[in-house]
Every structure is written in C-alpha cells, then in structure tokens.
C-alpha cells in the first residue's frame, strides 16, 4: 500500500470526496458505491484512521449522504468550491494540522474532483492510495483513463479490503474480528 511499510494509522487520512446524493444519483452503480464507501468509512473508523468529508458547493448541491456521515460521528465536513480538495485553503489547513503522510481517497467523481485531489496531493508530497472499489464517475471509461494516469504518476490504486487488511497486518489485531464481520456484511450486501 505504501512505499513505507511501517506506515501506521496515525500517518493516514481517509478523504471522502463529495459523497453527496446529487452526485451519487449521477454515477454508475450508485448503490454499490455507497455500500463500498460505507465499508471503507466503518473500517477506517474502527482502525482509528482519521476521516475528513468534503462537499462540492454544499449550499447549492446539498451535503454528504447522511447515512455515510452517521458512520463517522465527529468527522469534519468541509465545503469547497475548487474541484481539488487541496485547492481549498480550509481543507488544506485541516489536512496540514493533522500531519498525515498518506491520503486514502474515496468518492466522486473519479475523473474530476478525485483526480484533481490526487494530482495535487502527489505534488504536495503525500503518498496517495485510491480505493478502487470506492470510486465512481458518470463515465466509467473516463475514470479508468484517470486511474491509469494517476498510477503512472505514483499513486496506488487498490481495493479497500486490501488496504485495510494491510493495516491490520495479522489476526491478533484488536479490530480483526470486527473487521472480518464488516467484510462479510459488505460482501453479502453486494
């Protein structure tokens, strides 16, 4: 997952990009995306990975899906006008205050906001992992092209289960049993 195998949850931030109903309705396989993002949010919260939600122009487009927010009580929710989350000064400051080394990205839209956020994060020196099953776009082919470009630029593109299992490392982790139950629930809902 990372070029630094010793990465800990304290080094990470799960950035949930624009999971607003207006966008969820517009992307391919919306219900599956929402289930997979719910899984990632619950896994991150259970492991103690800090979370941050962004919202694209929430005063006009509405807020994050409430059922996703409910999975991470207390996680900050920050609005933005820029497509890149790092293009917003408030979000940049919030991220800088947390001092993560590695951003995990999920959300919408792969070919616009997620892509631009990943490009800016790489340019700012962050390691970036895109949770491949927790991303979507109106045009899946555009998303594939963007993920390929991001991989060439140095980002990792991995399924969320792979990422969170790598954080657990082994079956002795205190969250392992709860995590495997999350996996079973997410898999059976598919």
TrEMBL record:
**Domain of life from the UniProt record:** Bacteria
Q: Which residues belong to any copy of the Isochorismatase-like domain?
A: 13-161
A Pfam family found in this protein is: Isochorismatase
Keyword set includes Electron transport: no
What are the GO MF terms of this UniProt record?
hydrolase activity
Q: Does the keyword Hydrolase apply?
A: yes
**UniProt entry keywords in alphabetical sequence:** Hydrolase
List the InterPro entries hit by this protein, alphabetically. Answer: Isochorismatase-like_dom, Isochorismatase-like_sf, Isochorismatase_domain
Can you name this protein? Answer: Isochorismatase hydrolase
